[in-house]
Specification:
OB fold (Dihydrolipoamide Acetyltransferase, E2P); single chain; alpha+beta; five-stranded antiparallel β-sheet; Dna Ligase, domain 1; elongated; 3 helices; four-stranded antiparallel β-sheet
Length: 168
């Protein structure tokens, strides 16, 4: 498997991704422009090596990795030959209120008002299905949500509902 740092490549070039990588290197060398550089590519022998590189990239401020099939021809738009891999964290918070929905969610829950163990609150709407919006988890329910990172104020960023936690 190969990971790449960007999906920008040579749209009009033929051949496999591996072949286009070599063409990209040649173009950047021939152009001799300091601002035009080929994105480094990595091959991983196994999933453990990929996970280690992913954690390193994220630790250094990157979002994640793009995995690309070596033999893939160029495709415009979404492709089964390209997979974005990012780390997700998860945590729990308690439902303290149901916020009303607007527009297509009128008459349903638009979001859940959540409270962290330290008392800070945030709204959680992403990841709620229409079924959950019609019948949201009751106030007091402990919810597991996933998020990508914390803001500078320590609040979850890019949060998404996962599930109501089972009672112990």
């Amino acid at each position: 498997m190969m990971a790449m740092g960007s999906t920008l490549e040579l749209p009009n070039a033929s051949g496999s991704f591996t072949g286009r990588v070599e063409q990209i290197k040649a173009v950047t060398v021939a152009a001799n422009l300091p601002w035009l550089q080929a994105v480094p590519q990595f091959r991983f022998p196994d999933a453990d090596a990929l996970q280690k590189k992913l954690r390193d990239i994220v630790r250094r401020g990157g979002e994640g990795l793009m995995l690309h099939r070596d033999d893939a021809v160029y495709e415009t738009g979404r492709s089964s030959a390209l997979l974005k891999v990012i780390l997700w964290l998860d945590a729990e918070a308690r439902v303290v209120a149901h916020l009303p929905g607007k527009g297509k969610y009128a008459g349903m829950a638009g979001a859940l008002r959540m409270e962290l163990p330290d008392g800070r609150r945030f709204s959680l709407g992403s990841g709620l299905t229409d079924v959950l919006r019609r019948n949201p988890p009751p106030v007091g329910t402990l919810i597991t949500y996933r998020y990508r990172e914390l803001t500078k104020n320590g609040m979850p960023r890019f949060k998404r509902y996962l599930r109501a936690r089972d009672k112990l």
